[in-house]
Amino acid sequence: MPLIRRAGLDDTEQIAANHVRSWQAAYAHALPSDFLAALDPADWALRRREMLARRIPPAEVFVAEADGRVIGHAAVGRFRDEDNIAQDGIGEVMAIYVAPEHWSTGAGLALMQTSVKHLVEQGLTEIRLWVIADNPRARGFYERFGFLLDGNSRMQPIGSGYEHLPPIKHVRYTLYR
User: Fold this and answer.
1) Phi and psi dihedrals of 12, rounded to 5?
2) Which residue range or ranges hold the N-acetyltransferase domain (predicted)?
3) What distance in Å separates the CA atoms of residue 66 and residue 4, rounded to the nearest whole number?
């Protein structure tokens, strides 16, 4: 079982590298291959460093570590609506990714347990997350954990430089604690 701990600034490069590799493996069937191949861990590390530096409670980033290496991460905080306004009493799992070679090892479960516990300790008893609709592996994981589809969906652009492609459908799950 991996060690779960709060992320530090020195974890950003490993978090970013795992995040990119996770996207490349998990979304290979759903996103353009040239988009996935062009993902740059260095760019993602800059964003992660900024996010870690401005933690505002209950925002937190946790990492799963095995053999001294970061193998996954989860980012949590207050749920924000379409206008980026934090919602009282509602938390969000903003990201949860594990390096593909560590899938099905318990790392994701340990990260989710820690994330949910942290949010509940902050008084957030309704916890939401968004997931690409065509991501059966992640959706199955969330459902086994107890998250339920809540009927909300949205279309999101793939990313910068890919505006010519149709947006990707995301669905929302909610967990009540």
Assistant:
1) -60, -40
2) 2-172
3) 9
